[in-house]
Design brief:
mainly alpha, single chain, globular, Arc Repressor Mutant, subunit A, 170 residues, 3 strands
Length: 170
C-alpha cells in the first residue's frame, strides 16, 4: 500500500536514515538504532494496513489473532490466561479483546468446568465464519508484506528469531 493510500504524502527522504545519521553524531549504536527504528516503523505500517483491512469486518488484528488462536485448539476454546500467555499480551488486554469479541457474538465466555475462577473463551460458528472471511482478506494482501519475496520473508523471520530467543520469547 502506498503512502497516498494511507492519506499521507511520502517524504522526499528516508526519515529513518536521517534519524540514524543524526543519532550517530551524538550517540553510539547508530546501526542498531537504525534497525530498531526500521523494525518499529514497519510494525506500525503493517499493523495499520491490517487493521484498516479488518475494520469493515468489525475486527482489529489483535481480535483476529484471538480468533485464530481459538480456531487452532482442539475444542475451539481456551482459558483467558492461556490466551494471554500464547499471544504474549497482558491479562487486561485479553479481557478487553474477549469482551469485544463476545459482544460481537464471535466468541462465548463460560466458567471452566473444573475451576470456577477460570473463564473459558470459545469461538462461535459466527466467529469461524468471520475468521475465514478475514483470513482470506489478510492472505490476499500477503499480511501487508507483499513487497517481500518468499525468500526475503523467510530470511526476515530467521533473522528476527535471534533477538526473540535472546529475550526469552521461547
Amino acid at each position: 500500500m502506498s503512502p497516498a493510500d494511507h492519506g499521507r504524502r511520502a517524504l522526499p527522504f528516508d526519515p529513518v536514515d536521517e534519524a540514524s545519521r543524526r543519532w550517530a553524531e551524538h550517540y553510539p549504536e547508530a546501526t542498531r538504532m537504525h534497525a530498531v527504528t526500521s523494525l518499529m516503523r514497519v510494525h506500525q505500517l503493517v499493523l495499520s494496513e491490517l487493521d484498516e483491512l479488518l475494520r469493515p469486518l468489525g475486527l482489529t488484528f489483535a481480535r483476529y489473532e484471538v480468533l485464530v488462536l481459538l480456531s487452532f485448539t482442539r475444542h475451539g476454546e481456551l482459558p483467558l490466561g492461556k490466551i494471554g500467555e500464547r499471544l504474549q499480551v497482558h491479562a487486561t488486554s485479553v479481557t478487553s479483546l474477549v469482551r469485544r469479541l463476545a459482544d460481537a457474538g464471535l466468541i462465548e465466555r463460560s466458567a471452566h468446568p473444573d475451576d470456577g475462577r477460570t473463564v473459558l473463551a470459545s469461538i462461535t460458528p459466527r466467529g469461524r465464519e468471520l475468521l475465514a472471511e478475514a483470513t482470506e482478506a489478510i492472505t490476499e494482501v500477503q499480511f501487508a508484506l507483499g513487497s517481500l519475496s518468499e525468500d526475503d520473508a523467510r530470511s526476515l523471520s530467521a533473522l528476527l528469531r535471534h533477538p526473540r530467543a535472546a529475550a526469552g520469547d521461547f
